[in-house]
Amino acid sequence: MTRLGFLVARTLRDESALQRLSVPQAGLLAALRDKHVALVGNARALAETDHGARIDAADLVIRINGAPMPSAESHGGRTDWLALAVRLSQADRARIAPDRILWMSPKRKRLDWRTATSPGFYLHPLADYRALQARLGAPPTTGAMMIDLIARSQMARLDLFGFDFFASLSLSGRRTADQVPHDFKGESEWVREIMLADRRIRRH
Questions:
Q1: How is domain 3-203 classified at the CATH fold level?
Q2: What is the C-alpha to C-alpha distance for residues 27 and 94, in angstroms, rounded to an integer?
């Protein structure tokens, strides 16, 4: 697809054309097989921990959106995959340097050409987003979408870091829970149920 074709497809919301830029979901899930995955959220409370070495020791480190990393001691420094629902600035792209970008947002007009043509690019299907939204009764966070996606794989283990469901707010912004469209209480309960059903998943 040319850049012009991409812009036309994005403007017209031509999902089938945009999906042709993405690796198949089956291929993405296959890449998780037997992996120890660290999914790093952006809760401010994570900055007060010493989880960094544990995060970097995972087979695959996945971070979210702006992926703030205030210190190596708390956050580690490696990013293999970056799950996005916002546009990435040039400075953040260079700082984070992910090997693969996953576009999780249903808002396709925010998707840029550089991201869509990056190596291993993945576009999360709208049907998956809508199914999780219906289950939660509210728009899911990027973190929730990633937990849902990873849990469907044959990964060996998933460790969640920096997930306190907005109790300590976010390192990536100043908004409060009532200023964002997510149901953090509902997501917290949903994750608790998932962890009870799937012992591969742990929250730190």
A1: sialyltransferase cstii, chain A (3.90.1480)
A2: 26
